[in-house]
Write a structure and sequence with these properties.
Elements lengths: L2 E5 L2 E3 L5 E8 L7 E7 L6 E6 L5 E3 L7 E6 L4 E6 L8 E8 L3 E3 L3 E5 L2
Parallel strand pairs: 2-11
Antiparallel strand pairs: 1-3, 3-8, 4-5, 4-9, 5-6, 7-8, 9-10, 9-11
Amino acid sequence: QVHIVESGGGLVQPGGSLSLSCATSGIPFSLAAVGWYRQAPGKQRELVAAIASRGTTNYSDSVKGRFTISRDNAKGTVYLQMNSLKPEDTAVYCCKANIGKDYWGQGTQVTVSS
């Protein structure tokens, strides 16, 4: 059975940092491409950052230079380090693992507010 579980969200002030984790099980994680997506109220879901099985990364222009995605194949986990957070980063952040098929987690809420 496949499990994708995000954690690490919360409330943070503008300029602050958060680190999200996406823990997986039930898939050959080292072969999976993984992406972090976010969806704010009233907006479409957007890809924030992605990491390929071999470690190649890409970022949306809105987070480039502030967010860093990384993976630990031994733990089956992908991380998203978010720095210099802005109110417009407020959203539900979800993780998607692709191994021929997409597997989604339930998401974690990130709120950036003073």
